[in-house]
Design a protein that fits this description.
The protein is α+β, with helices and mostly antiparallel strands. It has helices at about 15-20, 30-40, 55-65, and strands spanning about 10-15, 45-50, 50-55. The longest helix is centred in the middle third of the chain and has 10 residues, at about 30-40.
Length: about 70
């Protein structure tokens, strides 16, 4: 059976896809940015002056991590 070809490009999420009410993390946008500033969440990758994204794998790992 042939092996699937991995996606060569990583997938990214914008903040509105990460936070509540429609995102994978049940927190507000301001809480998310506060956690990034505190170093508890990783910084995003700035694409343009108004667009920052985070790797999907990193955000899903945060969603699977138990709250502390």
């Amino acid at each position: 059976m042939p092996q699937p070809i991995p996606d060569p490009l990583p997938r990214y999420l914008r903040v509105r896809q990460i936070v509540a009410p429609h995102g994978v993390l049940p927190i507000s946008r301001s809480t998310f940015y506060a956690q990034v500033a505190a170093g508890k969440f990783p910084p995003g990758v700035r694409l343009t002056p108004g667009t920052t994204v985070w790797a999907t794998s990193v955000i899903l790992a945060l969603a699977d991590k138990p709250a502390s």
